[in-house]
């Protein structure tokens, strides 16, 4: 059974709710105030099953929206997930201000199908009805509701005249509507939250993608709360699961009505990320005033609403009827994905001024040239999935794009991301995607950086891995793959935590090699009665700079070990100390400062730093004034 969401649109009191009731038998006005005042204030819902021209059963979910200008924000909360629109125009009034605004909103949201219903046809004569039909046809010409391909049907909810024609037209248009993707990752924008006696917290919304089943765990955006689906209803009937394109109600465990609100989004846990800024293509209506760079506007996407600061990427002003790339900085973080449509409304007076489509919900933080950002967004706008993924990986350089981040960046499943990566020619470095071009360039740079290091540091055996990675600006996974490749090709060698060119060990002059032996011998012979490093260096034949480099080398190779700012010991002395403590542990597992001094023969000046070093090395553990030998 094909599920299609139908939204109403039109001016206040043009008969939208009455038409839905006449078609479905369901009064979408559920609030007491709505019934008392006779106007729709909030979005309402109804459903209907119709046969398509081919005989297939169509399940239509109606989202009835308010027409009053004061409640356009409520209208926007319901219209975001529709598949087709029924534009309602009263035959006794014709096209009015909210007819135009609602229609602009539908176009900005890229609604592609629908029909127009001239309601209250019983209130006018045939000639007037024909005049209104011509007026509406002229208003719609050139749009997705152009009369040449979209029907205009006259009907009366009061007498029932024309309702069967409306149903037939609905069946035809709905059969042509594109079905939402039930295989995609699930997202449910929440439009209602309430408590049902005996069940607890219930939320409703239009499932815009994927499938949600009973007992499934979901994450609530933006709060991050985890909830469990205790029950599912589709169009008011219990179901095992809901699929994309259906009006869905979920009974949730793990959240109260205070924890949930309209504007939140439900999705599988640990799949998507919040966005506090997005890059998008923005459209400005011809009727709007020029939009200046940095202007603020009300931002509506699906059921959520916040404020956005609009930063134009290529100009200082966007003129009416034009489009441009922009970064939208949101006051409140939300869940948005590429392809999501949004509406922009002016601050004062609050009218619809434009909208757009999200292209990037995960902009890179480092500054990029405007031309680079524009080229990337143009690829996202018009490229194939492989081209888009390649562009997303390329802009991350050697940091790479984690496969686990692809769902949030492109709204594709991880398994599909792997297939896309293979087709795009990307390299998978331990779960991180990187372009082959970036890796080729880096393989040349890494050798060059190592050579520069050796030339500048002849007394150092190699460059530290982390220092080299920092110079490259590479992520850990990409760096490991890069090093492995360089070692296989005999371009680099790895010794412990250092990297060097093949055959480029330490080259010392005679006096440097002699000085190294002097330093090592001085500390080795002293045991735990270590000499002052300054005194040892003062007696060397080499200058202070070279002497310090020799000490750095000894420390790096762990021949000498620095345990405090002033104390350096030879590794053999500390190894002997460990053995003494291990032997003592067999008889006495505890030792205090006085006993330690007796055991080692050192003064308190040495004993305290040595004990603190042993604590850090987990050889001992301090308990009060004593140590336990581990």
Summary tags:
630 residues, alpha+beta, Rossmann fold, Elongation Factor Tu (Ef-tu), domain 3, 6-stranded mixed beta sheet, 19 helices, elongated
Q: Can you put this structure into words, describing what you see?
A:
The chain has 630 residues and is α+β, with helices and mostly antiparallel strands. Helix content is 34%, strand content 28%. The chain contains 19 helices and 35 strands. Strands 7, 8, 9, 11, 12, 13, 15 and 16 form an 8-stranded antiparallel β-sheet that branches. A 6-stranded mixed β-sheet has the order 2-3-1-4-5-6, with helices on both faces. A 6-stranded antiparallel barrel has the order 17-22-20-19-23-24. Helix 11 (436-456) packs across helix 13 and helix 18 crosses helix 19.
Number of helix segments?
Answer: 19
- Supply the CATH architecture of the largest domain: 3-Layer(aba) Sandwich
Shape: elongated
Q: What percentage of the residues does DSSP assign to strands (E)?
A: 25-35%
The first-to-last residue Cα distance is: 69 Å
How confident is the prediction overall: mean pLDDT?
A: 88
CATH hierarchy class name of the largest domain? Alpha Beta
Supply the CATH superfamily name of the largest domain.
P-loop containing nucleotide triphosphate hydrolases
Number of domains: 6
Largest sheet: 8 strands, antiparallel
Question: Which spans have pLDDT < 50 for at least 5 consecutive residues?
Answer: none
Extended strand count: 35
Secondary-structure-derived class: alpha+beta
Quaternary organization? single chain
What fraction, in percent, of the residue positions are helical?
25-40%
CATH topology of the largest domain: Rossmann fold
Using only C-alpha atoms, the radius of gyration works out to 36 Å
């Amino acid at each position: 059974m094909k599920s299609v969401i139908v939204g109403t649109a039109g001016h206040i009191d043009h008969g939208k709710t009455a038409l839905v009731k006449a078609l479905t038998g369901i009064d979408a006005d559920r609030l007491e105030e709505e019934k008392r005042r006779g106007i729709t204030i909030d979005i309402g819902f109804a459903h209907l099953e119709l046969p398509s021209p081919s005989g297939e059963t169509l399940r239509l979910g109606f989202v009835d929206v308010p027409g009053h200008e004061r409640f356009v924000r409520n209208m926007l909360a319901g219209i975001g997930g529709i598949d087709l629109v029924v534009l309602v125009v009263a035959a006794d009034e014709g096209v009015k201000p909210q007819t135009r605004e609602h229609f602009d909103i539908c176009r900005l949201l890229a609604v592609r199908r629908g029909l127009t219903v001239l309601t209250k046809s019983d209130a006018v004569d045939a000639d007037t009805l024909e005049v209104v039909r011509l007026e509406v046809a002229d208003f719609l010409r050139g749009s997705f509701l152009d009369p040449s391909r979209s029907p205009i049907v006259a009907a009366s909810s009061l007498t029932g005249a024309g309702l069967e024609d409306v149903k037939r037209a609905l069946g035809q248009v709905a059969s042509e509507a594109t079905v939402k993707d039930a295989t995609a990752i699930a997202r449910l924008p929440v439009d209602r939250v309430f408590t049902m006696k005996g069940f607890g917290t219930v939320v409703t919304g239009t499932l815009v993608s994927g499938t949600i089943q009973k007992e499934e765990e979901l994450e609530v955006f933006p709060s991050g709360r985890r909830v469990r689906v205790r029950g599912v209803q589709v169009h008011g009937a219990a179901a095992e699961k809901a699929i994309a394109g259906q009006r869905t109600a979920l009974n949730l465990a793990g959240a109260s009505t205070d924890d949930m609100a309209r504007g939140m989004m439900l999705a599988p846990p640990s799949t998507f990320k919040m966005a506090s800024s997005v890059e998008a293509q923005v459209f400005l209506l011809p009727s709007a005033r020029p939009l200046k760079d940095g202007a603020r506007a009300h931002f509506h996407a699906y059921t959520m609403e916040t404020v956005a600061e609009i930063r134009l990427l290529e100009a200082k002003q966007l003129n009416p009827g034009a489009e441009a790339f922009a970064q939208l900085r949101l006051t409140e973080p939300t869940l948005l994905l590429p392809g999501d449509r949004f509406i922009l409304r002016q601050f004062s007076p609050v009218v619809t001024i434009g909208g757009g489509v999200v292209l990037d919900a995960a902009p890179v933080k480092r500054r990029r040239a405007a031309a680079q950002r524009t080229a990337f967004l143009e690829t996202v706008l018009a490229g194939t999935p492989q081209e888009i993924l390649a562009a997303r990986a390329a802009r991350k350089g050697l940091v790479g794009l984690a496969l686990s981040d692809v769902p949030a960046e492109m709204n594709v499943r991880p398994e599909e991301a792997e297939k896309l990566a293979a087709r795009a020619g990307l390299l998978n470095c331990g779960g991180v995607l990187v372009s082959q071009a970036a890796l080729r360039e880096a393989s040349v740079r890494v050798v060059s950086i190592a050579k520069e290091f050796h030339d500048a540091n002849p007394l150092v055996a190699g460059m530290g891995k982390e220092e080299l990675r920092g110079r490259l600006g590479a992520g850990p996974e990409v760096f490991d793959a890069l090093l492995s490749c360089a070692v296989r090709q005999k371009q680099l060698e790895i010794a412990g935590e250092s990297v060097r060119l093949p055959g480029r060990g330490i080259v010392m002059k005679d006096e440097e090699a002699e000085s190294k032996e002097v330093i090592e011998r001085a500390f080795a012979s002293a045991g735990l009665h270590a000499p002052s490093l300054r005194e040892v260096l003062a007696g060397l034949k080499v200058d202070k700079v070279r002497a310090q480099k020799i000490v750095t080398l000894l420390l790096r190779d762990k021949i000498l070990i620095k345990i405090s700012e002033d104390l350096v010991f030879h590794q053999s002395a500390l190894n002997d100390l460990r053995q003494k403590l291990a032997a003592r542990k067999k008889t006495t597992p505890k030792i205090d400062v006085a006993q330690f001094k007796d055991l080692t023969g050192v003064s308190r000046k040495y004993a305290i730093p040595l004990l603190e070093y042993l604590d850090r090395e987990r050889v001992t553990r301090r308990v009060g004034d004593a140590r336990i030998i581990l």
